[in-house]
Amino acid sequence: MRFTALLSAIAIVAVPVLGANFNVTVGANDDFIFLPDQISGVLPGDTITFTFVSRNHSATTTTFSNPCPPPKGGVGPNGFDTGFHDSASEGDPSVVVTIEDTEPHFVACMQAAGAHCHRGMTFAINPTEDLSYEEFLNNALNDPIQTF
Ligand SMILES: [Cu+2]
């Protein structure tokens, strides 16, 4: 009985809790885009794999209302920043980010002082009805103030 309980405890510890992974292509089609541009249903422990396939871009968390450019290091609770990655010199590198919560996260490219962001190079994790990807994109396209 005691041995069985021990085995059960070991089994519980040994089985890793694997989250889902979501793949996002950064700079797909040599364009200033994240593909897909939004992902919903991301849970704590899930990962997002950003693969950089053109030019030199970043995936950096930013604010919903004043997105461009995102600040180095990212902003917000559990914000993140992949840093810049150049597909030509690095051979289409990938960066894996682990998501820690179920909150919305808004992401943009910080290249060229926000120029890519202004062109709509944006991405949302767990957008909501109030904080929708469409409005975030609109904010990026029309963001007149460089606050960072
Ligand atoms: Cu970019």
TrEMBL record:
Keywords tagged on the record: Signal
Gene3D superfamilies named among the record's database cross-references: Cupredoxins - blue copper proteins
Signal peptide: 1-19
PANTHER family, per the entry: EXTRACELLULAR SERINE-RICH PROTEIN, SERINE-RICH PROTEIN, PUTATIVE-RELATED-RELATED
Protein name: Uncharacterized protein
Organism of this sequence: Tetrapyrgos nigripes
